[in-house]
């Protein structure tokens, strides 16, 4: 299930603007990798290149290589739609489908990708909601609209929706930035649980969060306004937070800039 | 008066006065806007009620002499429903697909910009010009004669830009995050559009279509040039002159008898009721599909 990702010399562009440059790293399976760095340094852009969501934006393109185990995600014959089925994503703001019930939201990925039987859908919905720590809160109102839940519940609903299609990798773009501390805690617990089955990559502005949930941390930075973002260093999380190799990393995590 | 930021002062008389005056103006504007609406409705109901009966709704004007009472608008109701129905069948798919192209695929390309421009131009076409165009092209050049279809074509020329504009606006209101959420689940673009974007925008699109229908249902000039006028029932929209409610009102109101004028008023009332009924159906559809239901 969980798969390793290897990125080699990756550049991403918005039109003629180079947003990130020369990123090379390996993301281990069954672990949590956190991306930290100041705003605008390309963390989210880089995350979105991992499931080919970057190219959804008009004019955006990518150069370089991303290997998911032995598959080149940017190979000429690769269907981006199938990449996104394998590499799921949770967004910064919870975005349940407003026309759908809680049940339909979770089943959406399966239903929209082909016909499945009702009993099959029921099984997947229940297990996904349980995995997302949401089942007990919503099991009596599965037919109610997903948009009627609280923010934290909506975000867990989105996580359930993402894991219902059983991806190999789960990308999270600041999943807790719009949530209160209690919901954040629920999601962090969930991340620790999910890493047994998935490769998880999380972008966060909250360094305590990165320290709490991740196994490895990558620090991104940019030389200046209009310059492309670069990977400064990547290491085991305790090492990054206690004894980073680079001066810039130390300055950032100790709050001296950014 | 000196302005000192640290002192909290009561609302000055000047501001109170301005507030009152502007409030009064807003109320006045509202009243001015509502008076004609109410008076039109009142006049139509008062004058139309006299002949708004079963005979009116079930009989045509065939064999009704110039001075006879009785007769009805069945043929006109039928004609209007058929013409507006066909016009809707033509313009809604074309308009909706155009809007989808503009919002989901156009992305500011030259083609989408020129389509946008021509839709704007189309919005400004006077209805009589649309009728003349169909008269010249369909009726005279192709020699297909007066028919309900010719009228429907003229009406659809008028409907299309309205449908495109309203559907486009509604599709643009659908948050991009929903499209991204769908893509991130590995859903192809066409399915994202049909299963996520369209249902989300459905309520607004239905309202827009209804407004477009309401607009063309009352058109007289283009029908006069394309459908012509008849006193008999013609159920076949493909062949021969038909009637329409606006034409009926126009025709009857011209006649010098009180009986005819009463029929014209009843025809106007029927037209208003049909449009209101359609609106009601649309509201029901929107309510039934509304995402907020049962929250």
Automatic annotation (TrEMBL), chain A:
Residues annotated as coiled-coil are none
Q: Which keywords does this Swiss-Prot/TrEMBL entry list?
A: ATP-binding, Nucleotide-binding, Translocase, Transport
- Please, which domain of life does this record's source organism belong to? Bacteria
Q: Which positions fall inside the ABC transporter domain?
A: 5-247
* Gene3D superfamilies for the chain: P-loop containing nucleotide triphosphate hydrolases
> Which InterPro entries does the annotation name?
AAA+_ATPase, ABC_transporter-like_ATP-bd, ABC_transporter-like_CS, P-loop_NTPase, PstB-like
Q: What GO annotations for molecular function exist for this entry?
A: ATP binding
NCBIfam families, sorted: 3a0107s01c2
Q: What is this protein called?
A: Phosphate ABC transporter ATP-binding protein PstB
Supply the gene name. Answer: pstB
UniProtKB/TrEMBL annotation, chain B:
Does the record bear Transport in its keywords? yes
| Residue spans crossing the bilayer | 25-45, 84-103, 115-138, 144-164, 196-217, 264-285
Please list the residue ranges annotated as the ABC transmembrane type-1 domain: 77-282
Identify the CDD domains for this entry. TM_PBP2
| The keyword Phosphoprotein is assigned to this record | no
Q: Which UniProt keywords apply?
A: Cell membrane, Membrane, Phosphate transport, Transmembrane, Transmembrane helix, Transport
Cleaved signal peptide residues: none
Q: How does the protein's chain sit in the membrane according to the entry?
A: Multi-pass membrane protein
Q: Which InterPro entries match?
A: MetI-like, MetI-like_sf, Phosphate_PstA, Phosphate_transprt_permease
Q: What does this protein do?
A: Part of the binding-protein-dependent transport system for phosphate; probably responsible for the translocation of the substrate across the membrane.
**Family assignment?**
Belongs to the binding-protein-dependent transport system permease family. CysTW subfamily.
Identification of the protein by name: Phosphate transport system permease protein PstA
Q: What species is this protein from?
A: Sphaerisporangium corydalis
């Amino acid at each position: 299930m969980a798969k390793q990702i290897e990125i080699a010399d990756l550049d991403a562009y918005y039109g003629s603007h180079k947003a990130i440059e020369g990123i090379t790293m390996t993301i281990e399976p069954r672990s949590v990798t956190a991306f930290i760095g100041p705003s605008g340094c390309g963390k989210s852009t880089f995350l979105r290149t991992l499931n080919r969501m970057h190219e959804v934006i008009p004019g955006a393109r990518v150069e370089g290589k991303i290997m998911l185990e032995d598959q080149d995600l940017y190979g000429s014959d690769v269907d981006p739609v199938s990449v996104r089925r394998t590499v799921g994503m949770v967004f910064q703001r919870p975005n349940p489908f407003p026309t759908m019930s809680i049940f339909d939201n979770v089943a959406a990925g399966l239903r929209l990708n082909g016909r499945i039987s009702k009993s099959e859908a029921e099984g997947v919905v229940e297990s996904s909601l349980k995995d997302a720590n949401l089942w007990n809160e919503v099991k009596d109102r599965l037919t109610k609209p997903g948009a009627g839940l609280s923010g934290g519940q909506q975000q867990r609903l989105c996580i359930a929706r993402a894991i219902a299609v059983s991806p190999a990798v789960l990308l999270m773009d600041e999943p807790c930035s719009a949530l209160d501390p209690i919901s954040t805690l629920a999601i962090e617990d969930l991340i620790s649980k999910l890493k047994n089955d998935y490769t998880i990559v999380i972008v966060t502005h909250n360094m305590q969060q990165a320290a709490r949930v991740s196994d490895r941390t990558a620090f991104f930075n940019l030389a200046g306004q209009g310059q492309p973002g670069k990977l400064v260093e990547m290491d085991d999380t305790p090492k990054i937070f206690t004894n980073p190799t680079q001066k810039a990393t130390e300055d950032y995590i100790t709050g001296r800039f950014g | 008066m000196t302005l000192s930021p640290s002192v909290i002062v009561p609302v000055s008389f000047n501001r109170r006065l301005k507030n009152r005056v502007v409030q009064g103006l807003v109320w006045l504007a509202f009243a001015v806007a509502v008076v004609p609406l109410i008076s039109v409705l009142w006049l139509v109901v008062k004058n139309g009620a006299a002949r708004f009966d079963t005979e009116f709704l079930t009989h045509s004007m065939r064999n009704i002499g110039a001075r006879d009472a009785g007769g009805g608008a069945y043929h006109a109701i039928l004609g209007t429903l058929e013409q507006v129905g066909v016009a809707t069948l033509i313009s809604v798919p074309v308009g909706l697909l155009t809007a989808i192209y503009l919002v989901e695929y156009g992305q500011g390309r030259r083609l989408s910009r020129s389509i946008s421009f021509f839709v704007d131009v189309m919005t400004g076409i006077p209805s009589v010009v649309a009728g003349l165009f169909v008269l010249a092209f369909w009726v005279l050049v192709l020699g297909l004669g007066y028919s309900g279809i010719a009228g429907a074509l003229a009406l659809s020329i008028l409907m299309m830009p309205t449908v495109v504009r309203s559907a486009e606006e509604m599709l643009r209101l659908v948050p991009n995050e929903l499209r991204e959420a769908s893509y991130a689940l590995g859903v192809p673009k066409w399915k994202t559009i049909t299963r996520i974007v369209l249902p989300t925008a459905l309520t607004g699109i239905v309202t827009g279509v209804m407004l477009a229908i309401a607009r063309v249902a009352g058109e007289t000039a283009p029908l006069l040039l394309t459908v012509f006028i008849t006193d008999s029932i013609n159920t076949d929209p493909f062949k021969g002159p038909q009637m329409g409610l606006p034409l009926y009102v126009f025709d009857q109101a011209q006649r010098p008898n009180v009986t005819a004028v009463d029929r014209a008023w009843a025809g106007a009332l029927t037209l208003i009721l049909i449009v209101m009924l359609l609106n009601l159906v649309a509201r029901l559809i929107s309510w039934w599909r509304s995402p907020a239901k049962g929250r």
